[in-house]
Amino acid sequence: MSNFQQSDTLHLTRMTYEDVSSALANGFDGVIIPCGAVEQHGPHLPLSMDADHAAALAVEIATLLGRTLIAPTIQVGCSRHHMAFPGTISLQEQTYAALCHDYCTSLAKHGFRRIYLFSAHVGNFNALRTMLPRLRDAVGPATEVFAYTNHEAWLREWRVAVEEAGGDPESVGGHADIAETSLMMHLHPDSVRRGQLVAGHVGFLTTEQLNLMWKNGIASISRNGVLGDARGSSREIGETCLNATARLLASAFVAESSGDAADVPTPG
């Protein structure tokens, strides 16, 4: 049988079933389910932005949590409010919930005892909140299921990280902005159309504007699909945002699983 301790991956899809069995036997009983979206991100970023971001975050979070593997990213999400822009693919909430259900029940059956869901696309947050009680019922009492859905804390962390790395925190808007553009410069620099970095709707969205966006789509708020300002983006900002967000989510998962606010260890 393969010795997992000699493996160089945390990704389930790169492992054999013997590797997974060995990992579980060695206490790797946590697993992350990263979620993304395939949707427009302005004229300068690819449709894969959220899925790429989720995949990268999962590695950082798994490393911080320890004894945690990574399930394949659910790449497509709930993106109805982006459908005015060509190429966007959107799942119905019940379709997305069914995918998460089947992931969780499969993983629980194999012996994973902690399942962590997060989404790099805020449009999935409402569906995650709604489905969470049903996911917990479906896996049974032996497995814990957690889902991160605090969008406000995520944006606050981005603003702090952007400022720390020398950018303008006011350019953070949450979609194809300085944070997301910088993240892609860090993760996949060749995918960024650097000559087309633009501003969209800059500033906090009012409750009325948010309701309008969910009802009529993001194009009703921003004609180019951007919330925030992509100008001033850099790889340094992207790396800082990635690390800060990973710590935010990992800390939230640790706190929820232990019932206490807790810091996660910094990997060596």
Number of strands: 6
CATH architecture: 3-Layer(aba) Sandwich
Strand order in space, largest sheet: 2-1-3-4
The count of domains is 1
Helix share, percent: 40-55%
Radius of gyration: 18 Å
Helix and strand content put the structural class at alpha/beta
Which descriptor suits the 3D outline? globular
Can you walk through the features of this model?
With 268 residues, this protein is an alpha/beta fold. The protein has one domain (4-258): Rossmann fold (3-Layer(aba) Sandwich), CATH 3.40.50. Helix content is 43%, strand content 9%. Strand 3 (114-119), helix 4 (125-139) and strand 4 (144-147) form a beta-alpha-beta unit. The longest helix is centred in the C-terminal third of the chain and has 24 residues, at 235-258. It is globular and about 50 Å long. The relative contact order is 0.15.
In short:
This protein has 268 residues and is of the alpha/beta class. Strand 3 (114-119), helix 4 and strand 4 form a beta-alpha-beta unit.
Q: How is the secondary structure organized here?
A:
Layout: H1 17-25, E1 30-35, H2 49-65, E2 68-70, H3 93-109, E3 114-119, H4 125-139, E4 144-147, H5 151-164, E5 172-175, H6 178-187, H7 207-216, E6 227-228, H8 235-258
Helix pairs in contact: 2-6, 2-8, 3-4, 5-8, 6-8
